[in-house]
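> example.struct
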């Protein structure tokens, strides 16, 4: 257990470097890092870790082993040049519990930029909130990991267990970045991921499937429209049937622990739709991109089978294929040492008990928990409008989260005087 005196030194060190931490977070936001465009921000993360004396590792994420893994999400983009970055701290004295500090660099598209109040890659601070795409999800968390570790060292202390700081792509679409770190051999006694979770700990979260449904039509001239088959009209039928499957899964929530009290835990999102070639031709095709959630304990294979059965039951020319996430959900079992340690650190930073909750969103924590047997602590700051316009993160929350992470590192890994 960290003494009160060392805890005070650590907390003071977070405060002392917080302006620098915010500046670094702004630099991360200034690097647009939508899918396949993460090179700039990964270079920045690499340099930042290297300058801290961490032992660096950077590699392209693709491998045969990845593609054969049950947790692999089929990718629709090339992984050429897409890298993971890991910086490892190796202790002089090694007698504590090891830790992975994980964060993702990829961000979702901005949508129409003119609808943002300011440019999405600018990072203004207004009334205590830092704005920009990726500010909350999750560049504030990436910076918090690094600066929490800094604070330990700035306090004149050295952790007494290995720590791996991971900066990964592909969290918003497949989870293959984090999965690759595990396949490369990175493991630890706990993983902490500072996703924007409203100063709370994630107890349970859904898995996610991505797939594309294609409806084929029969093109004709509209003058003989009745002889054609309109693939776009038919897509409404497909979406209606998928909504019924969504209703069915939601109706089963009472048999899934931690999900009983959520209003609508299973969300199917029609995230994209394209079809047709010409206003005066009955459309020959329509494609719908779907994101579907599944409960922890439901395998991706089982859920996919139900989706396929749903689509096959529609008497229409339909094909479906996987296009990303093929991921199962997970539950953080109650009462782990990792959670107890985080709860104490949270209380010391926030002066309040740590709350946990269930989120109907995907998290990379499943990679570590399901395939590595590692407890995943997904815990991070207050944000608003992630994946929306004017995404923002609350800086005082980031400060307290950083303090809690720093205290967690000290307690979990142990520290000694440098
Ligand atoms: Zn995220």
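> example.seq
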């Amino acid at each position: 257990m960290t003494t009160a005196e060392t805890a005070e030194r650590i907390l003071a060190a977070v405060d002392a470097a917080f302006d620098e931490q915010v500046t670094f977070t702004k630099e991360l936001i200034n690097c647009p890092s939508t899918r396949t465009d993460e090179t700039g921000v990964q270079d920045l993360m690499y340099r930042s870790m290297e300058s801290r004396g961490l032992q660096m590792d950077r590699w392209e994420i693709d491998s045969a082993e990845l593609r054969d893994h049950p947790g692999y999400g089929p990718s629709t983009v090339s992984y050429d040049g897409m890298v993971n970055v890991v910086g490892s701290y190796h202790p002089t004295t090694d007698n504590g519990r090891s830790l992975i500090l994980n964060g993702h660099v990829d961000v979702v598209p901005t949508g129409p930029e003119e609808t943002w109040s300011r440019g999405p890659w600018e990072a203004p601070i207004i009334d205590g909130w830092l704005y920009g795409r990726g500010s909350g999800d999750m560049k504030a968390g990436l910076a918090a990991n690094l600066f929490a570790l800094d604070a330990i060292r700035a306090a004149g202390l050295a952790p007494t267990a290995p720590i791996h700081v991971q900066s990964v792509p592909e969290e918003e679409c497949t989870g293959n970045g984090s999965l690759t770190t595990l396949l490369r051999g990175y493991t630890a006694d706990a993983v902490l991921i500072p996703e924007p979770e409203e100063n709370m700990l994630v107890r349970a979260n859904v898995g996610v499937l991505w797939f594309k449904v294609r409806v084929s039509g029969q093109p004709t001239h509209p003058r003989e429209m009745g002889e054609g088959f309109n693939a776009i009209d038919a897509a409404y039928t497909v979406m209606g049937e998928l909504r019924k499957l969504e209703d069915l899964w939601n109706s089963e929530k009472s048999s899934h622990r931690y999900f009983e009290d959520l209003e609508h835990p299973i969300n199917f999102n029609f995230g994209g739709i394209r079809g047709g070639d010409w206003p005066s031709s009955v459309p020959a095709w329509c494609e719908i991109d779907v994101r579907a959630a599944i409960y922890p304990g439901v395998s991706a294979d089982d859920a996919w089978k139900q989706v396929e059965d749903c689509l096959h039951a529609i008497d229409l020319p339909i094909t479906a294929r996987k296009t990303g996430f093929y991921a199962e959900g997970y539950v953080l079992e109650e009462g782990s040492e990792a959670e107890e340690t985080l709860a104490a650190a949270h209380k010391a930073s926030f002066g309040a008990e740590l709350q946990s909750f269930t989120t109907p969103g995907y998290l990379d924590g499943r990679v570590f928990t399901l395939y590595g047997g590692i407890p995943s602590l997904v815990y991070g700051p207050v944000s608003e409008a992630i994946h929306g316009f004017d995404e923002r993160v609350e800086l005082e929350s980031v400060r307290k989260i950083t303090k809690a992470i720093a205290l967690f590192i000290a307690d979990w890994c142990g520290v000694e005087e440098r």
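> remarks
The two ends are 17 Å apart (CA to CA).
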